[in-house]
Amino acid sequence: MNKLKTIAKASAGLLIVLGTVSSCKSEKKKEEKTEVVKEMAIPASLKWSERLALTLMKRHPESFQIDDRDTPKWDYVHGLVLFSIEKLYEKTNDEKYYNYIKGYADATIEEDGTVPTYKFEKYNIDMVVAGNILFNLYDRTKDEKYLKVLQLIRKQLAEQPRTPQGGFWHKQIYPNQMWLDGLYMGEPFYAHYTTKFENGEKLNDVAKQFELIQQHARDKKTGLLYHGWDASKKMDWADKKTGTSPNFWSRSLGWYAMALVDVLDYFPKDHPKQKELVGYLNQLAEALVKQQDTSGLWYQVTDMGDKEGNYLEASGTAMFAYSLAKGVNKGYLPEKYKEVALKAFDGMTRDLVKVNEEGEVVITQACAVAGLGGNPYRDGSFEYYVNERKKDNDPKATGPFILAALELNK
C-alpha cells in the first residue's frame, strides 16, 4: 500500500512537471507568435512612402502580383508602382526595393529579351510605361535583355499610328484618338530614351504630343482638359465640332499633370520647347486649384463637386499632389503650389487612408478603371464616371501616393 501511495505521488509530481513544461512551451509559443507579429507590423514611425511600399510588398511578395495578379503580365500599373518604388530606392538605398523592381522585370522578360505578354501589334501606348524601370536596370546590370526591351518599346513608338496632326493613337483599336492617359504612358519614356540614346533628337516630337492636346482638348473657360479627343470626330462620345469627350475626369488630368513634370526632367532649360511645357503646367495648376475641395481633395468628375453621386477620389488627388509638389521642387511652379499639394496629401491621409493593426496602409475611394468607347461602351458621361467601381489600394492611387510622399518628404 505504501508503495502504491509513493507511485501515485510520483505520478502526480510528474504530471505537475509535465504540465508546467507544457505551459512554459505554450507561453513561449505565444511569445514567439507575438514577436513574429511585431516583426511583420509596419512601424508608424516610417514615412508614408515606405509604409505604403512595405504594405504592397507584404501583400504582394512577388512584384508581378501587384493589382492582385497570379501570373506575370507586362502592364502599365506595375510600371507606375515600380517607378514609384524606384524613386523610393533612390532615397533610401535599401536593396529590397531594387530587388522588388528587378523581380518584375525578370518575371516578365525572357533571357532572349522577348516579353511573352507584350503584344507589339496592338500598338497600345499603355504598354510603354513599364519600360521606365528598365533604364536603371540596364545601367546597373548591363544585361542585354533589358536593352532589347527598351529598343522594342522605342520601335513601337516609331511605328505607333498617328492622327493626321501627328498625335499618337491611344491604341490600334481606338483610331485617331488621343487620351490624356496616353501622354503619361508614352511621353516620359520617349523623352528619356531619346535623351539617353539619340542625343534628344526627338524631344520636339515629345513636345508636339502636348501641343496637340493643349490645342484640341483644353477648355478655355475652365482651363481643364477633356479626357479624350477624337481627331476624326466619329466616335459617339466625341463632340461633333471639337472632337472632345464630354467631361473632365480627375485621374486623366492627373496622368497629364504627371506626364508634364516627368518629361521636363529630360528637357534642358535652353531647349526651345521647355518653357512651353512649363507654361502648360502652370495653366493646369491654376485651373486645378479652382476645383480643389475644402478638404484638399478633388472629385471624380473634376468640376461637378456639388452634383449628387460625385465623390472625392484618391488617385486623381494623389497625382495632383505629386505633380504640384514636384513642379515646385523643380522650380517650374510658384511656391504657393506646395501648400496646395500639402493640403491634398494631408486630406488624403486624414479622409481616405486607413491603417490596420499591422500598420498596413490602405487607400480608399480609388476609381478602379475608366475609359472611352470599347465594349461594353463607355460614353464619358457623368453617370458613367461616378458609377465605375472603386478599389482599395488600386495601383493608380498607390504609385502616385508614394511619389507625392517623397516629393513632400512625408
TrEMBL record:
Superkingdom of origin organism: Bacteria
Keyword Metal-binding applies: no
InterPro entries: 6-hairpin_glycosidase_sf, 6hp_glycosidase-like_sf, Glyco_hydro_88, PolySaccharide_Degr_Enz
UniProt GO BP: carbohydrate metabolic process
Gene Ontology MF terms: hydrolase activity
One Pfam family in the UniProt entry: Glyco_hydro_88
Transmembrane parts of this sequence: none
Alphabetical keyword list: Hydrolase
Cytoplasm is among the record's keywords: no
Protein name as annotated: Unsaturated rhamnogalacturonyl hydrolase
